[in-house]
């Protein structure tokens, strides 16, 4: 006979299985790749929908990350689209582009920090508050004309690097608290891949790879800025996958 403490987890699992089984199958039979893709889609939908039928773990950190990622990519697209209008508009859009990058980095911390330390309010508020303040400071530095002077270039770059490096502390702390749990190791793997994708993207962009080696060959396609955007989107998607693991883990485990 299961104890009363186990009932929420068992019920949540049964509801997820019910929702998963009720999701529609493909109308035509496909190959093995199609089946795997559909299985992944059904699993993602079940993880998001099923907890809403009971007492769900709050989703706002996950949605905040999605909002930050969409804002970053939207502002970047607008910058590329309209910056050729005039020098003044280009200057404004470039600053908004940097602010979008800051919002993506800041909100990327919300799901791992909140769901890792939701049962430890002190560390949760400490990490969340620190990265939020740093994100606000970086956004202001990106927007204010005073900080656009050449002498502040190193300062601006240091803020962005500092935001990225702030993730090392919470991740190591999470591993110490929950070492051995499969979901924690799974999310850490995703976060490591995300960091590598962002880091490689930054290096490619800063070093102008590959056009520095073959000038004129990548003016239309394949230049560093395009590769940078591809790697950023790949990193954001990797973090999205990690967020789904966090949601499933906390919905089943609780505190």
From TrEMBL:
It comes from the Eukaryota. Keywords: Membrane, Metal-binding, Transmembrane, Transmembrane helix, Zinc. The chain crosses the membrane at residues 62-84, 96-114, 126-147, 159-180, 192-209. The keyword Thylakoid does not apply. It comes from Senna tora. Zn(2+) binds at residues 80, 225, 229. Belongs to the ADIPOR family. GO terms for molecular function: metal ion binding; signaling receptor activity. It is a multi-pass membrane protein. GO terms for cellular component: membrane. InterPro entries: AdipoR/HlyIII-related. It is found in: Membrane. This is Heptahelical transmembrane protein 4-like. One of its GO terms (biological process) is response to hormone.
